């Protein structure tokens, strides 16, 4: 945390900041909250930032922010002839947050030979957690409203930045692209996919 305080006191638009697993050693809720607050401050600073994290929700919260690009390290989970899952690191980045459908952690636990009873319990927990999360999301108009507001705020920030940059000849094309992205993302939110 001392390092984060130092960074926040000294960061500017000329800075490059690399953060690995901010919030480690705290509760999941506190760690995520600290990571979001730090990321928001760094976005405002306009510094160039690499932020490595296991908080999938951080990637989702920041997904529509101007200047934020979500990447994840690609891996391939497969099941060998022996029935044991194998995790292969591909050593390349892919766009978007890591899919939580892959169960990377559980597959890694299987490959390392953890007891089957523990693996089954973990799989049951993941399944129940996904079902709960999906039910909450379907039942929550508040989440849709929050996503709409987030998208509108992102559009507002992008328009402000376009005005500041002032590239007159590129502006019509950029505005058309922004409009297309906004309409597409808003439609996805309305359909429940976004």
From TrEMBL:
Keywords (A to Z) from UniProt: ATP-binding, DNA-binding, Nucleotide-binding
Sections of the chain in a coiled coil: none
GO biological process, any: mismatch repair
A single cellular component GO annotation: nucleus
Top-rank lineage group of the source organism: Eukaryota
InterPro entries, sorted: DNA_mismatch_repair_MutS_C, MutS, P-loop_NTPase
Domain DNA mismatch repair proteins mutS family residue range list: 15-31
GO molecular function annotation: ATP binding; ATP-dependent DNA damage sensor activity; mismatched DNA binding
Gene3D superfamilies documented for this protein: P-loop containing nucleotide triphosphate hydrolases
Nucleotide-binding found in the keyword field: yes
UniProt-listed Pfam families: MutS_V (PF00488)
Transmembrane segments: none
PANTHER family: DNA MISMATCH REPAIR PROTEIN MUTS FAMILY MEMBER, MUTS PROTEIN HOMOLOG 4
Family: Belongs to the DNA mismatch repair MutS family.
Name this protein carries in UniProt: DNA mismatch repair protein MutS, C-terminal domain protein
Organism: Cordyceps fumosorosea (strain ARSEF 2679) (Isaria fumosorosea)
């Amino acid at each position: 945390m001392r390092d984060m305080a130092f960074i926040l006191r000294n960061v500017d638009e000329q800075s490059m900041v690399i953060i690995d697993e901010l919030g480690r050693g705290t509760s999941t809720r506190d760690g995520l909250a600290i990571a979001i607050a730090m990321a928001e401050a760094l976005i405002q600073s306009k510094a160039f930032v690499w932020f490595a994290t296991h908080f999938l929700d951080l990637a989702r919260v920041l997904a529509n922010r101007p200047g934020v690009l979500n990447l994840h390290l690609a891996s391939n989970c497969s099941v060998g002839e022996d029935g044991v899952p194998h995790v292969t690191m591909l050593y390349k980045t892919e766009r978007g947050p890591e899919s939580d459908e892959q169960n990377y952690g559980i597959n890694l636990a299987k490959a390392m030979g953890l007891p089957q009873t523990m693996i089954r319990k973990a799989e049951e927990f993941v399944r129940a957690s996904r079902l709960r999360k999906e039910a909450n999301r379907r039942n929550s108009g508040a989440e849709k409203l929050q996503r709409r507001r987030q998208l509108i705020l992102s559009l507002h920030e992008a328009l402000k930045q376009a005005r500041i940059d002032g590239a007159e000849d590129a502006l019509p094309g950029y505005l058309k692209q922004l409009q297309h992205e906004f309409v597409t993302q808003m439609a996805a939110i309305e359909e429940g996919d976004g």
